[in-house]
Each structure stands twice: as C-alpha cells, then as structure tokens.
Design goal:
With 525 residues, the chain is an all-alpha fold. It is 74% helix and 2% strand. It contains 25 helices and 2 strands. The protein has helices at 21-30, 32-47, 51-57, 59-67, 81-107, 110-130, 134-162, 168-193, 201-207, 210-222, 227-232, 236-247, 253-267, 272-275, 282-297, 300-313, 318-342, 348-373, 383-401, 404-415, 418-450, 453-472, 484-487, 496-510, 521-524; strands at 3-8, 14-19. The radius of gyration is 24 Å and the shape is globular.
C-alpha cells in the first residue's frame, strides 16, 4: 500500500509522489550502514573495559585497573595512548577514505559506494576476530574505518535523494536510528560476552560486527540507485524508469525535468571541491562544517565510546557499568524514534533549540555531582547519586538523539545543490570523522586532567551551538531538495547576501553585450 502525497515545487509546479514500498525498503536497506557505524562505536567502549582484552593487548592498563598501584587518580586509570588509538584509528581511516568515497559516489553511484563499504566492513571484522597482536587489531579497525568513510558518504545522500520531500527528514533519520540500534546491540553483546568464561568473549563482541557488515553488502546489491545519480551519470532513461518506480506514478515529468536541469548545471562544474569555495556555496559549507564540529563537542561520543569505562571510573563495578551503558543505549534508540515522528512536523530548528537547553542542564548537574562525590582517590558515590548520574546521562543522551544526532547528518545532506552535493557530503563526513577522532583520542586524557570539569567543558560548547542555531540556521523542513537555494538561502536574513552577490556577479558576466566585432566577452570569461 502506498500513501499519496503532493510535493510542492518552488517553481509553482507540484511533484506527485507516493510513499511506495520500494522507497521504504531501499531506505531500510541503505540505512544498515548506520547499524555498522553504531556497532563499531558501541563495541569499542565495551571491549576496552573487559579484563581479558586489556590483559592481552594493553597489559599496562590492565595492571592499573586490577592492581591500582601507582595510580595518580581515579580519573586516570584508563589514560593510555594505545587504548585511545584502538578506538580512534577507525575515525582517522574513515576520514582518509572519505575523499575516495566522494569520487566513487559521483562517478560510480551511491549504490556501488555502499557495496564497497560493505566489503571493507567484512575485511575489518575478519582481522579483528583473528587478532593475535595490537597491529592486527589496528589494521582491522582501519579497514572498518574505510567502510565507515564510504558508508557515511553514500548513505545520507542516497536517503535524501530517494525520499519524497514530505518525509525526507524521517527517512534520512533511519540512518541515525540504525546508528543508535547498533550502539545498543553492541552494549547488549558486551554485557553478555563479558560473562563468558575463558577470556574469549571480546572476540565474539568484535566478530558479531559481521552481521551488519553482511546486511549492508546484501542491501547494496538489492537496492536501486537514485534517479539523481543515474541522470548525473548520463543514464537518462534508466533514471526516468527508476523515478517512475519509486514515486509510484506516471506523472513524473516535472520532477524528471528538474533533475535533468540540476544535472546539466552540475556537469558544468568540472571541479566540485573548488566550486564549494564559491561565495554562493559558503552558507551550506559553513553550516555543514559547524554542525559536524558542534555534534562532536556536545560530548556525546565521549559518553558513547567510553560509557562502560566512564561508569567504571565513577565507581560502578564492571557488570554494573555495562548494564548502565545498555540503559543509555536503549534511551538513545527510543529518542531517535521520537525524532523520526517530529522532524518533518516540528522542524529542525525547534528540535535543536529544545535539546540545547536539556543537554546544558544535564551536563551541569553531572559535573556538580562528580565534583562533590568522586575524588581522585575515593569514589564516594552512594547508590542514590549513582542512579542520578545515570538518569542525567540518559537525559543528555535522549536530547542529543532527537536533535544533534540525526540532524547533524540530515541538514548537510539536504542543503547542497547537486553540482556540489557529493563534494559537500565528503567535507561533512571528513570534518565529522576528524573531530570524532580528536575526541576519541583525547577524551581519556581530558578525563584524567579535567576530571569532573570535562562535563562543564562540553556544556559550554552546547551553549555556543544553541546560539548558532538560533541566529544562523534556517529551517529546511518540507522543501524539495533541488529548491533550497531559492526558498531557503535567498530568504535568510544573513545568508542571502552571499547568494545574491554571487548570482548577481554571474548574471553581469552572462548578460555582457557582445562587442561590435562579434567578440563575446561572456564566452571568454
């Protein structure tokens, strides 16, 4: 059964589109890339708190956590460069892979890029499961990182292009929902494998990443490529057939013509990365970069990577800390579902602003409790305060999960014009992974030095990003993806000056009269 909607076009036409089963299935299959990313984020924090894993690969940390000799502070027991490199190498590899993924997304299509990511994921899982030393472990993480780079490049663009604009937000958030399900799945697996006798539970934790790896590979083989991608690569008839199939109607001519026109403009751009630097593209690139930096500086990954380690530091015992991480993982999933229902109704801005208040307050409360109760050499955290910390962490995670989590990916994927979309997405993913790497590499050292102040540090950033949203982020809900320039950027009080100035300059060149001898100045420029 397909639900009928009319997609309004800024040019005055209406694009007819039904919410067809093929769109829903394609989006679910594509979004399994998020499942892999989430599992990788969640599993690393769990295995790095398992004694057998630490004993095999990080004996220094193991001795510190078990014997607690020569320990300067409760906050420093996990402060180890190698341990941080195990987590963060994935993001550094993903960052590098993103540049190659931008090329494949444009030249080979969104679908094939997702397939490549699946192969990288499978290779990474094999290395991690079979790891006999730290080098094998890091190689596995690097391969997984390449998979993340390719998947995070292709999947959000695929979802934005295939979905009707009326439900584009909800379908795009499927990617983030799968990230949160992946984290929860990893936390549950870690909770179970931690109880396995014989010290091989961590191998099972790392090996079960094979399930989402196989899902995205099979999914990429089954889905159709997007009409935008097919038309961009000159396969017009195939693009038209796919558009008819996914929209569930024969009345696709207006949307098809708009896609062809967008593709024609895109083909004129020989160097998309250089084109990103043009004045007219400045609003999109500034907002995309800012959203990625802000998303990481909410402190979410610090909590998600290291939730078990963090709860251990606060004095929870090993089992209890994994249990607490499972609770936060479940809250993450449920809150992302809230976002799916509200993003196309309430809008992007309102979700981000509400979450800013909630995240700020919860982090300040956590900092106060830890400042009073968790000292360098004592963890006088009574059961009541321990529960309050978990509740505050859940409050923080829930607000992030319906705002900065999904919207940090959704907004950049829907705002770039076709000619710079894959380059723009590449910069988005690259900045995200760069700052994820920075936080992953630095967090345990920051926890050691800042102690409870780490939460005040992140709450300060939440305040800054909320003001950015209030004044500089336009609303993009329910606007067709190829019409953002006319209906969003040209209408915004601040950003319109960049768009108007640049287009005015182009028009001036294009309309320059031919000189008397027939020399056309515009063609020379």
């Amino acid at each position: 059964m397909a639900v009928g909607v009319i997609i309004s076009s800024g040019s005055g036409a209406d694009f007819e589109a039904k919410i067809t089963p093929i769109v829903i299935i394609s989006c679910i299959m594509a979004a399994t890339g998020g499942l892999m990313f989430g599992y990788d984020v969640g599993v690393s924090g769990g295995v790095t708190s398992m004694p057998p894993f630490l004993k095999k690969f990080f004996p220094v940390v193991y001795r510190r956590t078990v014997e607690e000799k020569g320990l300067d502070s409760n906050y420093c027991k996990y402060d180890n460069e190698g341990l941080q490199l195990f987590t963060s190498s994935l993001y550094l590899a993903g960052l590098t892979a993103t540049f190659f993924a931008s090329y494949t997304t444009r030249k080979l299509g969104r679908r094939l890029t997702m397939l490549i990511s699946g192969f990288f994921f499978i290779g990474g899982v094999v290395f991690n499961v079979a790891a006999q030393n730290l080098a094998m472990l890091i190689v596995g993480r690097i391969l997984l990182g390449c998979g993340v780079g390719f998947a995070n490049q292709a999947v959000p663009v695929f979802l934005s292009e295939i979905a009707p604009s009326r439900i584009r937000g909800a379908l795009n958030i499927l990617f983030q929902l799968n990230v949160t399900i992946g984290i929860l799945f990893a936390n549950l697996v870690n909770y179970g494998t931690n109880k396995i006798k014989g010290g091989w539970g961590w191998r099972l934790s790392l090996g079960l990443a094979g399930i989402p790896a196989i899902l995205i590979t099979v999914g990429a083989l089954l889905v159709v490529d997007t009409p935008n991608s097919l038309i961009e690569r000159g396969r017009l008839e195939e693009g038209k057939a796919v558009l008819r199939k996914i929209r569930g109607t024969d009345n696709i001519e207006p949307e098809f013509l708009e896609l062809v026109e967008a593709s024609r403009i895109a083909k004129e751009v020989k160097h998309p990365f250089r084109n990103l630097l043009k004045r007219r593209n400045r609003p999109q690139i500034i907002i995309s970069i800012a959203l990625q930096i802000f998303q990481q500086f909410t402190g979410i990954n610090a909590i998600m990577f290291y939730a078990p380690v963090l709860f251990n530091t606060l004095g929870f015992k090993n089992d209890a800390s994994l249990y607490s991480a499972v609770i936060t993982g479940a809250v993450n999933v449920l809150s992302t579902i809230v976002s799916i229902y509200s993003v196309d109704k309430i809008g992007r801005r309102m979700l981000l602003l509400e979450a800013g208040v909630q995240m700020f307050l919860s982090q300040v409360v956590i900092a106060i409790i830890l400042g009073i109760k968790v000292k360098d050499h004592s963890d006088d955290l009574s059961k009541g305060f321990a529960v309050l910390v978990v509740v505050m962490v859940c409050t923080f995670v829930s607000s992030f999960a319906w705002s900065w989590g999904p919207l940090g990916w959704l907004i950049p994927s829907e705002t770039f014009p076709l000619e710079t979309r894959s380059a723009g997405q590449s910069i988005t993913v690259c900045v995200n992974l760069l700052f994820t790497f920075v936080i992953a590499q630095a967090f345990l050292s920051m926890l050691c030095h800042f102690k409870f102040g780490i939460f005040l540090f992140f709450s300060g950033w939440v305040l800054i990003m909320s003001f950015f949203v209030l004044f500089l982020l336009p609303e993009t809900k329910n606007i067709p993806i190829e019409e953002m320039t006319e209906r969003v950027w040209k209408q915004h009080w601040f950003w319109k000056r960049y768009i108007e100035d640049d287009y005015a300059a182009d028009e001036k060149v294009a309309n320059h009269p031919k000189l008397d001898n027939g020399f056309d100045l515009a063609s020379q420029l």
